[in-house]
Amino acid sequence: MNALPATLPGPDYHDPAVYALDREAIFFRSWICVGRTEDVREAGQWITADVAGESILVTRDQEDSLRAFYNVCRHRGSRLCDGDSGQVKSAFRCPYHAWTYTLDGKLRGTPHVGREEVSREDHGLWTVAVDEWQGFVFVNLRRDDPPALRDALAESEGVLDLERFDLSGLRRGFRSVHEVQANWKIIVANYNECLHCPTVHPELVDIVPAFRSGVVFEDGRSDGGVSLAEGRRSVAGDHESRHLLLPGMTEEEASSYFGSLLFPAMFLDISGCEAIATLVQPTGPTSCRLITDYLFHPDSVARADFDPSAVVEFNERVAEQDNAVCERAQKGVMSRAFTHGVYPEKDAEVYKFDLHYKSLRDAYRSRSQEAAE
Ligand code: FES
Ligand code: FE
């Protein structure tokens, strides 16, 4: 019998130095989803998002363009906006000394300090690249020119296939937030395999019978989807879905589940009537925040009797099952005994992720070494 491929070594899941590298090499160089365009529809509407510890402010300017900035005042560094979302009329005002910035990030006012003293041109907010795909807002913190968003997404297998469901007009019916005591790679690894499904998700395997075998996609590809149990069009507690099919969904596709990881750390799970998007936001070497948006056909959400509870409750239970095993794994990988684990064949996607992750990390490390020499 051949030796099995090894997982990452234990410290990769908890060492602060590895986490610092993950922030620089992965999270500050990739396109990271920070929310939905429905939250920044009008000029001055804003959201904030945490990108591996960096607070990013996203808004829409007067010209209807999305804009993203570090949530940091150029005067003496004060945090500019508090909370997750809000709306300003035409400017952001720093709570510290009341400097103001226009919606496109230009410095506008510096009360009690002469205009000639502080150059307006040189002290605009620090900008961040921003773009949208299918109604999702993405930012990229790279200092050099980032690749086009869609080109980057094309590198995550099966993601562009999901465009056929036309997710851009979907509306959020519910959002959940979970703080999980596990490294982000443990959460992603768990998403990338279904070997745990028969043990951890007894209710889920009843709805997606293929998961009983411990693989996500039997042919190894996501574009065909996996069949739901007879008569189902939703991964939910009730058998009959009360929501409309997603706009681009054919009758045949409606009875399937489709899912993809958007590298590095976003999950998109789609079945007939709902799309569930989960953002994994690292909050430290051994912790994450998981933000999950439950998205539905806009006409379903607009109905007076709209009720997402059957979908939400079922999937929240699945999420809690996942989060519990991730926290359990985190405890074990911090043992000094855990030099590494092993990947049997059904963990192949997890192994693939590790290889890609390591190649980006190594490339970043050698670039920074070169730059230092
Ligand atoms: Fe923002 Fe002074 S730190 S105005
Ligand atoms: Fe799971």
UniProtKB/TrEMBL annotation:
Cross-referenced SUPFAM superfamilies: Bet v1-like, ISP domain
Tell me the protein's name.
(2Fe-2S)-binding protein
What Pfam families does the record tag this protein with? Rieske (PF00355), Ring_hydroxyl_A (PF00848)
Its domain of life reads Bacteria
Q: Which residues form the Rieske domain?
A: 31-139
| Species name | Streptomyces kronopolitis
The question of whether Oxidoreductase is a record keyword is answered with yes
Question: What are its cofactors?
Answer: Fe cation
